[in-house]
Amino acid sequence: MRTARFASCCCAAIGTNTPLEAAIARPADNFIPNPTPADEVAFFQLSGGSTGTPKLIPRTHNDYDYSIRRSNEICGITAETRYLNALPAAHNYAMSSPGSLGVFTAGGCVVLANDPSATLCFPLIERHQINVTSLVPPAVSLWLQAIADGAGNAQLKSLRLLQVGGARLSATLAARIPAEIGCQLQQVFGMAEGLVNYTALDDLPERIINTQGRPMCPDDEVWVADEHGNPLPRGEVGRLMTRGPYTFRGYFNSPEHNASAFDADGFYCSGDLIAIDEQGYITVQGREKDQINRGGEKIAAEEIENLLLRHEAVIHAALVSMEDSLLGEKSCAYLVVKQPLRAVEVRRFLREQGVAEFKLPDRVESVDVLPLTPVGKVDKKQLRLWLAERARAEEQSMAIPKLTAYALPTAAELPTSKVNWAFEPERAALLIHDMQEYFLNFWGENSAMMQQVVANIARLRAYCKAHNIPVYYTASRKSRATKTAPC
């Protein structure tokens, strides 16, 4: 470990061989004696890039000076603060909300870690008596799991405040933090483009658990718009629109994107879906581009993810879209679980939570870990790629040859209790496939396809036996009529 002093502040870099003392002591060759104008660009932040190429966000000295100082006031950052930065250090959240720059401004100490894993961070917190740190929700899940698996929270006694941001924290996880990690929770909702929201340290617990706070600046203008740009009443979910003294005015060298990202009055549309209550507290519902359009019905991924996290066997959850020729999109839930969990159990659990049928995951996949972006968010682009590759492989391996209509085998050819595979196996396989598909659809797994399957069965003049009663399904309705002999 190497430690460097910045006047009255300290930075300890963990897991690096960079000679910080030498770098700080060496004078700059291009030193400029005159001060830089406060409204000039200090540096460029990068947009998340989760839906395309990241864009450059110009931020001025004024932006960050105000943002850092105001964040310090809200978060109680002082010279006594010892901050663990285990997230990407140049990311807006870990750098300035209030982050490392805020702690340096207050004269406190910053400890840098290579990653937010419990195995690395817990000993660092104990060794350096860390009292403030910040995480993203997936890292919170890992910490809670480590504590439950036997690590305990004894090494976290010095921790006073845990900030969580970067993505919405589910109320289920939020409620566990004070008791299991043993510190106060502060929710943070911000963006590299400017706007930052915090829950206050003296907010009621229900506010801290269930909301993402309020704008930090009295001059921040935030409202909710519908898909046509019209204002929505308090409490309704819509697009976040904002402008303010420290929010940017446009992406660098990107006029086409700016034309769609800002309205005529200069309000920035972030792509976040939020609701604002009567007291001005924001609840994040997800990202507009993260919605799944299932045959015209909209599914908010974060809503289902947060409900899935209530299941005792689920550690992490992510809901993504998958292509469907009939509905346009369906949903797939990726789960990291403590024990095996079948798709039917997942759907039953969600039904018990009051979830509408169209919102139930069409597919459930269990994985060891969820892929993350460099800033610690779930990489849903990668999940969709996995899903597409899996679907292509399954389509190739499970393809059934297209055959012309055939007459149903006679009783001798197709006994009641079994299929005689020695007699024209392709006919028998196609019959069984059709009937399996029909019964899956009949019980609601894919009701939109039911009419098509029933029509195919009628076309093939197929029948089946239920409790030894021959049943013939018609294409016009889900009815059944007993028959004395096969068709």
From TrEMBL:
Residues 1-22 form the signal peptide. It comes from the Bacteria. The lineage of its organism: Bacteria, Pseudomonadati, Pseudomonadota, Gammaproteobacteria, Enterobacterales. SUPFAM superfamilies: Acetyl-CoA synthetase-like (SSF56801), Isochorismatase-like hydrolases (SSF52499). Its EC number is 6.3.2.-. Keywords: Ligase, Signal. It is an enzyme of class 6 (ligase). InterPro entries: AMP-bd_C (IPR025110), AMP-bd_C_sf (IPR045851), AMP-binding_CS (IPR020845), AMP-dep_synth/lig_dom (IPR000873), ANL_N_sf (IPR042099), ATP-dep_AMP-bd_enzyme (IPR050237), Isochorismatase (IPR016291), Isochorismatase-like_dom (IPR000868). One of its GO terms (molecular function) is acid-thiol ligase activity. The gene is dhbE. This is 2,3-dihydroxybenzoate-AMP ligase. The keyword Magnesium does not apply. It comes from Enterobacter asburiae. Residues 428-479 form the Isochorismatase-like domain.
